[in-house]
């Protein structure tokens, strides 16, 4: 290899990642101070590469051409006579390019660090995973104790509202069925006179009688109990209700 | 290499000091060899023939075997999760069998699952009033609760605790220990307090006239 | 559990004995936990998220992390062929790099390729500035980066992390755990620092003449 001026033409443009890469190559090759780029020299060398590419009939990526235009523009500004005036404003036509080059240099430096680290950590070996049995999903319940209480309070409230609503309806029924209630009380008292214990569900069965009649019957039963003519027993909540003539219970006890 | 294992004799005079240094050096080398073997066996994953191992550590087969036996013991006796297995004339690193139950959990994706509103309601009624029948639950909720009770039984949050002494002998449900565990209660007495008299009050208010 | 790490205080009288016994028990439990973790990580081969580990050993995440840090040190300082790596919020066992030359003799080492200059540059930009758009990468590199980004996505070294809130909603890229693994970082916070002020300084330094 000689240092012939066009020796660099042997380098294919594809070897460069982009215009910055090429510029860096030139800067390093010419041992140029990046903060003070001799723009004329660099531009000329840069253009030489592009011309060489053209001669070799290689397609030149548009980014290289954009950079060429930028370099030529900077070069022309540097050569213009009014540059003196620009000096006073402190503006250097190369400033933007230098900033971009430095930014790119940082990336290249870090890329080198990454390359070295990759080579270093390639020495670390991992083990292939063991064949683990594909176990079924283990579902884990996620619950909230406070939600339990909250839900309970809501359902109680709903229940109460429903009951109140029904008792409202009941009131209306009672007003309409006053006679019916009296009739029911009479019927019940007649049955109790026989001295036997009655099952509420046997007398007032929803399957045999209407809801209204059962409700009225229930109220009749309560009325009788209130008057002291009978006692009501219910062993468990919502269990069977037994009605007994008061006479039997009390008389035997006395 | 064999000296590492057998060199225990004392030499007189200055020789003793040299021997001691030499022994220390050997011990260091032995530990280095053991590290190499661990790395090699780890990376291999599979069983590695003793011939291959002796080639890698540049020792004869007999020495390699005695080093391996020594390592086998070390793994066994120290608090390690892995151990060395000799399979024929090969060696392999593997996990200790007692840790199997932890390893299987690697493949288990735990799915977090919440409860439905219906489940909370039903569970709450059962928890606060246990033992209760399905009819009671349905009475309070005002809707059929077959499915939700089935679901809670499957999740082992409730269970049958007996039968009510009433016509049809309906099943009685209560909460399980799993329920306590999941909700973080020590006992059902830990349930957040609620004014239960509300229901009773309603019943008493029904006017007769 | 945390007591294992911090419980060093001495108690007077008989309490001291209890405390000592308790400490011993804790030490024993801790070593057992370390054995479990070694077995699990060995079997996993891959990196295991700390959440999974804490689930398996039934300890909270913070405790698990401190146990893992302790183990990391132990592997490093003892004559072991393997070591523990933290990769992001996961942990993985691997061989110590100094034993590479022995492992390659197994003849099974998976062929690993380096990356292209373009890939290193693009990764460098994404690693430092994440999350970033393709346009930003191209701005810094001065060249179209479609293919290299596609390639890094395929290698799982970068991933989409969202979209930028700007016209066209361009995709934002960041590095992955695989990136950390390949380049030996524990987290992106480990990236060697670059002087961000460089540019500012440079601007001040640019000679005007």
Walk me through the structure:
The complex is a heterotrimer, with one copy of chain A (254 residues) and two copies of chain B (209 residues). Chain A has 254 residues and is mainly alpha-helical. Chain A has ten helices and four strands, in the order αααααβααβααββα. Chain A has helices spanning 19-29, 39-55, 62-79, 83-89, 95-121, 145-176, 178-193, 200-203, 211-227, 246-253; strands at 138-141, 198-199, 230-234, 241-245. A three-stranded antiparallel sheet of chain A has the order 2-4-3. In chain A, a hairpin with a 6-residue loop joins strand 3 and strand 4 (241-245). Chain A starts with 18 loop residues before the first helix and ends with a helix. Chain B has 209 residues and is α+β, with helices and mostly antiparallel strands. In chain B, the strands form two sheets. Chain B has a three-stranded antiparallel sheet. Mean pLDDT of chain B is 82; it is low at 1-11 and 198-209. At the A-B interface, strand 1, helix 6 and helix 9 of A face helix 2, strand 4, helix 6, helix 7 and helix 10 of B.
């Amino acid at each position: 290899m000689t240092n012939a001026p066009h020796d660099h033409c042997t380098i294919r443009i594809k070897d460069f990642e982009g215009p910055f890469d090429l510029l860096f190559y030139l800067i390093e090759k010419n041992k140029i101070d990046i903060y003070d780029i001799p723009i004329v020299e660099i531009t000329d060398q840069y253009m030489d590469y592009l011309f060489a590419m053209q001669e070799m009939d290689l397609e030149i990526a548009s980014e290289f051409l954009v950079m060429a235009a930028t370099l030529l523009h900077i070069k022309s500004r540097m050569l213009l006579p009014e540059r003196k005036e620009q000096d006073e404003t402190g503006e250097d036509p190369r400033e933007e390019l230098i900033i971009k080059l430095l930014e790119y240099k940082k990336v290249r430096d870090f890329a080198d660090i990454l390359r070295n680290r990759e080579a270093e950590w390639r020495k670390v070996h991992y083990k292939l995973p063991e064949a683990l049995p594909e176990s079924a999903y283990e579902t884990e319940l996620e619950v909230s104790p406070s939600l339990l209480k909250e839900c309970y309070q809501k359902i109680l409230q709903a229940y109460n509202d429903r009951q109140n609503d029904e008792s409202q309806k009941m009131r209306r029924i009672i007003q309409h069925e006053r006679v019916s209630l009296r009739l029911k009380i009479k019927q019940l008292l007649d049955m109790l006179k026989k001295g036997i214990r009655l099952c509420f569900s046997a007398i007032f069965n929803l399957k045999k009688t209407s809801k209204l009649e059962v409700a009225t019957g229930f109220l009749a039963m309560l009325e009788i109990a209130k008057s002291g003519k009978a006692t009501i027993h219910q062993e468990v909540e919502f269990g069977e209700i037994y009605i007994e003539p008061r006479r039997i219970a009390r008389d035997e006890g006395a | 290499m064999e000296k590492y294992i057998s060199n225990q004799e004392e030499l007189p005079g200055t020789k003793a000091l040299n021997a001691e240094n030499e022994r220390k050096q050997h011990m260091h080398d032995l530990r280095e060899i053991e590290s190499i073997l661990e790395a090699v066996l780890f990376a291999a994953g599979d069983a590695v023939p003793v011939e291959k191992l002796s080639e890698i550590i540049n020792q004869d087969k007999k020495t390699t075997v005695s080093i391996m036996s020594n390592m086998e013991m070390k793994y066994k006796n120290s608090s390690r999760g892995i151990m060395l297995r000799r399979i024929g004339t090969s060696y392999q690193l593997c996990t200790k069998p007692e840790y199997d139950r932890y390893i299987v959990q690697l493949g288990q994706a735990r799915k977090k699952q919440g409860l439905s509103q219906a489940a909370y309601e039903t569970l709450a009624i059962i928890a606060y009033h246990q033992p209760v029948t399905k009819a009671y639950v349905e009475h309070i909720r005002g809707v059929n609760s077959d499915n939700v009770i089935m679901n809670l039984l499957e999740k082992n949050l409730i269970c049958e605790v007996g039968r009510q002494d009433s016509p049809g002998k309906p099943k009685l449900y209560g909460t399980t220990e799993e329920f306590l565990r999941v909700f973080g209660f020590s006992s059902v007495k830990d349930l957040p307090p609620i004014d239960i008299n509300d229901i009773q009050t309603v019943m008493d208010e029904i006017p007769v006239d």
